[in-house]
């Protein structure tokens, strides 16, 4: 179907959609079931069987399996079967860990996918792009990515960046009228929008004519996007660490084997023991556990209303030293309410709160509604993209809250949808953050034309030639001063100011953009309040304790910004407020000299944000930067942690960011930083636990060989220890709660190594002690009963397991083991209890005693085991080292 040839009414008729109400939810669901989801086919997923088999492709595991086969051929059937079972269980654990990580990352990808703005049952709603169906009426604004192929029905200065589809770098202007040409390529179909392209200017509406693989993008196989493998810097570091540890472990294992053979132990027995030791000692599962810990942390962040789009951000969050945050909606409620209105010569106070349309206008305590005030509100309603909608029985705003506040004030003046129905928009010059204004060309039912410009007072004053003061007259310098004083008075009360101006246009004419916004007649200025969020003040204070500087960035007047910053206790007594005009005149070096003392940037553009980011980074800071618009994307991308708004943010901003705030709330940034710090600390905890345990296992075997003692552990016991004590407890450490002082520490240096802050010493010292106490248990039992090697090995086996399970609680803090409640982490308590139960089963269940070469232990034995096992933890229990 050549949709570009059809009129909009014909398109709607063929697709069975009402252009006023859109599809019904039921009809949309029926179409989705029939046509499938609006997604491009992805690369084929690896089968579960191959993922499972991949767990056994590690070289050392293959060597172990070969050695086990040899052991079975030599008649050691029980040992061979036991080792095979343990290897299989290990494989299943790795398989489930990998599956959990994959599912978490898939869920993460789904959560961070773009939303579409569609009309269902007469109401505009946001839905996941994958749920868009053919026939949906869709709304597109600057910064949105088009979710499907769309035939335009409305367009206001709409331009699309279509390079992803056509390779054309310049934006393409769009139109609504049908095209009568016979065969047009996508780049020439100017009344069509295509999936994956980007709205760079203006706004529009249209009907979806193609979804998924039935789009122009879907037909280009080379543009299919493959799933990106998310590997974080930390995972890369640990992979490199793993390679180093493999070399060290193999050398030590080879040393143990050679000494054992030299001392007369059978070659096959020492080879099997050496390979088992290498498999247990090499932390091959470390990267997988890190991925799982990161993904579990990401799930916790989602519950705190923060979606992590890039796993590397989790690490970087712990290093954040500066948060540059937008004011509106992030630090404030984003529920604007008009409180004061100034028209040349008059002041009005407006009653009512939030989006409640009950309220009135007062002048000197008298309720009034003069024509001049009503005209200002009518024009503010006409030059407006927002709409009032019912949300759960309450009136809400769909669109910009500032525009919504003007609509609510207009409702208080009796201006309704029916009032504005007789006016027709001929042309629109859309708002953008550089121009700080928006203009529409309007025609009334009598054919009269006039333009309305709405924007920042200082911008409109520069374009104003007349004012309405009872009647229209030329503006004088005294008038300008009076208006500027009124704006300053409002700003001093933390009111955001919006000015509205008009201009008559000859009938039938459509002037250019410049002419429409020249020689305006100023009607007045509205002052609206967006109160600070209640939780933000505490979040800022907590960030200050954590050594994180909070900086407010806003397009508002400097006095407004200062008032809000002081209310939030963000601006210290000697802190500076820097305006955009000052920022523009500064070099990067000049800004770098003063930026440490600047806490508020007012009247800034998105381009200024990039300059701010670079200045802070030049001072060595790790910068988090928020944004929601298209022009914010460069600063978001340049920052160390780019943060976009989930509600008000454009798709471009979200794609450039590494963190998306579902509630657009500054307090969520603080929660994400706290969670990021905790995730990093938890990763350090289980690295400490795993490596100290592995060091202990290697050293007990090495010391025994050096002392010419029998093997203190047999291969199946070594593998069992690796399976039971290294698995569940290590994973439970990844779920540990934050320590109480986690937000009272300075930001972590991004150059900090994984073994910094004494972690290397802790691993070696605890590992050495775990190995020594295990050897002491073995030697004590062996000397008491040299004819019963099984008893001595059982004592060593139980002591090694117990020492590791007690040591895991020491790993919960860099301080004393007694500094934290051991019952606080119930996952860890459960993991240790499970490991203890499995140990008792292996020791006292007769069939397994034969498999694991164990025997019953007495109460006296357990007292010795417990005392020895506690030494590595208790000895350092009161120490921070």
TrEMBL record:
The protein's topology relative to the membrane is:
Multi-pass membrane protein
Where is the major localization of this protein? membrane
Q: Which residues form the Cation-transporting P-type ATPase N-terminal domain?
A: 2-76
Tell me the compartments it is located in: Endomembrane system
Q: Which reaction does it catalyse?
A: Ca(2+)(in) + ATP + H2O = Ca(2+)(out) + ADP + phosphate + H(+)
Read off the InterPro entries from this record: ATPase_P-typ_cation-transptr_C, ATPase_P-typ_cation-transptr_N, ATPase_P-typ_cyto_dom_N, ATPase_P-typ_P_site, ATPase_P-typ_TM_dom_sf, ATPase_P-typ_transduc_dom_A_sf, ATPase_P-type_domA, HAD-like_sf
Q: Which family does it belong to?
A: Belongs to the cation transport ATPase (P-type) (TC 3.A.3) family. Type IIA subfamily.
Protein name from the UniProt record: Ca2+-transporting ATPase
Q: What is the lineage of its organism?
A: Bacteria, Bacillati, Bacillota, Bacilli, Bacillales
């Amino acid at each position: 179907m050549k949709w570009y040839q059809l009129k909009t009414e014909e398109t709607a008729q063929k697709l069975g959609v009402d252009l006023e109400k859109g599809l019904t939810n039921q009809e949309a669901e029926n179409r989705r079931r029939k046509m499938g989801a609006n997604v491009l086919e992805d690369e084929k997923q690896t089968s579960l069987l191959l993922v499972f088999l991949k767990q056994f492709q590690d070289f050392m595991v293959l060597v172990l399996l070969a050695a086990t086969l040899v052991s079975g051929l030599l008649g050691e059937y029980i040992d061979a079967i036991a080792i095979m079972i343990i290897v299989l269980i290990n494989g299943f654990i790795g398989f489930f860990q990998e599956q959990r990580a994959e599912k978490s990352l898939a869920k993460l990808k789904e959560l961070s996918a773009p939303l579409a703005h569609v009309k269902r049952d007469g109401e505009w709603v946001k839905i996941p792009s994958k749920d868009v169906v053919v026939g949906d009426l869709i709304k597109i604004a600057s910064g949105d990515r088009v979710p499907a192929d769309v035939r335009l029905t409305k367009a206001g200065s709409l331009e699309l960046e279509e390079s992803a589809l056509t390779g054309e770098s310049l934006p393409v202007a769009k139109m609504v009228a049908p095209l009568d040409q016979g065969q047009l390529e996508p780049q020439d179909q100017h009344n069509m929008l295509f999936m994956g392209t980007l709205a760079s200017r203006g706004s529009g509406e249209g009907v979806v004519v193609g979804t998924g693989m039935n789009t122009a993008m879907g037909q280009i196989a080379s543009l299919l996007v493959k799933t990106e493998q998310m590997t974080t810097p930390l995972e890369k570091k640990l992979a490199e660490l793993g390679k180093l540890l493999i070399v060290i472990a193999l050398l030590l294992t080879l040393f143990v084997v050679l000494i054992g053979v030299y001392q007369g132990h059978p070659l096959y027995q020492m080879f099997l023991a050496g390979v088992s030791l290498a498999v247990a000692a090499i932390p091959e599962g470390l990267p997988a556990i890190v991925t799982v810990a990161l993904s579990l942390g990401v799930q916790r962040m989602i519950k705190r209303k923060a979606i992590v789009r890039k796993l590397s951000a989790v690490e970087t969050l712990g290093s954040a030293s500066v948060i540059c945050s937008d004011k509106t909606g992030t630090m404030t409620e984003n529920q604007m309410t008009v409180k004061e209105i100034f028209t040349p010569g008059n002041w009005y106070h407006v009653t009512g709160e939030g989006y409640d349309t009950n309220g009135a206008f007062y002048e000197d305590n008298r309720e009034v509604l003069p024509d001049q005030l009503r005209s200002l509100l009518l024009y503010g309603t006409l030059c407006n993209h927002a709409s009032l909608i019912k949300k759960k029985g309450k009136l809400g705003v769909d669109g910009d809250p500032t525009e919504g506040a003007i609509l609510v004030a207009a409702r208080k003046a009796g201006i309704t949808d029916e009032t504005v129905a007789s006016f027709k928009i001929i042309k629109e010059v859309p708002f953008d953050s550089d121009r700080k204004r928006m203009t529409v060309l309007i025609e009334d039912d009598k054919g009269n034309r006039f333009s309305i410009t709405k924007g920042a007072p200082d911008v409109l004053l520069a374009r104003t030639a007349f004012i309405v003061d009872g009647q229209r007259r030329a503006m004088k310098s005294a008038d300008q001063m009076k208006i500027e004083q009124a704006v300053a008075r409002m700003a001093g009360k933390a009111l955001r100011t919006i000015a509205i101006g008009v201009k008559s246009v000859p009938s039938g004419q459509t002037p250019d953009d410049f002419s429409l916004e020249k020689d305006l007649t100023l009607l007045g200025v509205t002052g609206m309040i967006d109160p600070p969020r209640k939780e933000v003040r505490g979040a800022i204070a907590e960030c200050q304790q954590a050594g994180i500087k909070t900086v407010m960035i806003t397009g508002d007047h400097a006095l407004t910004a200062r008032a809000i910053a002081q209310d939030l206790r963000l601006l210290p007594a000697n802190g500076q407020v820097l305006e955009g005009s000052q920022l523009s005149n500064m070099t990067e070096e000049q800004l770098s000299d003063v930026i440490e003392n600047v806490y508020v940037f007012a009247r800034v553009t998105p381009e200024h944000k990039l300059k701010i980011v670079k200045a802070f980074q030049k001072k060595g800071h790790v910068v988090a930067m928020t944004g929601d618009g298209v022009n914010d994307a460069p600063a978001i991308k340049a920052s160390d942690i780019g943060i976009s708004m989930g509600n008000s943010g454009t798709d471009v901003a979200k794609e450039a960011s590494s963190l998306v705030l579902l509630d657009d709330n500054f307090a969520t940034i603080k929660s994400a930083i706290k969670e990021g710090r905790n995730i990093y600390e938890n990763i350090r905890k289980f690295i400490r636990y795993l490596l100290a345990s592995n060091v202990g296992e290697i050293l007990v075997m090495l010391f025994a060989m050096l002392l010419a003692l029998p093997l203190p552990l047999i291969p199946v016991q070594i593998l069992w220890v690796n399976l039971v004590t290294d698995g569940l407890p290590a994973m439970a450490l990844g779920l540990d709660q934050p320590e109480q002082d986690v937000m009272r520490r300075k930001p972590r240096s991004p150059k900090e190594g994984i073994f910094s802050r004494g972690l290397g010493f802790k691993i070696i010292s605890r590992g050495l002690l775990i190995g020594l106490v295990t050897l002491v248990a073995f030697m004590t039992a062996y000397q008491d009963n040299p004819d019963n090697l099984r008893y001595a090995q059982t004592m060593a086996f139980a002591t090694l397991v117990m020492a590791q399970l007690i040591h895991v609680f020491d790993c919960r803090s860099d301080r004393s083991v007694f500094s934290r409640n051991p019952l606080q982490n119930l996952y860890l308590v459960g993991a240790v209890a499970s490991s203890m139960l499995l140990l008792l089963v292996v020791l006292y269940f007769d069939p397994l005693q034969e498999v694991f070469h164990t025997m019953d232990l007495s109460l006296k034995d357990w007292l010795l085991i417990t005392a020895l096992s506690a030494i590595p933890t208790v000895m350092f229990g009161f120490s921070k080292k």
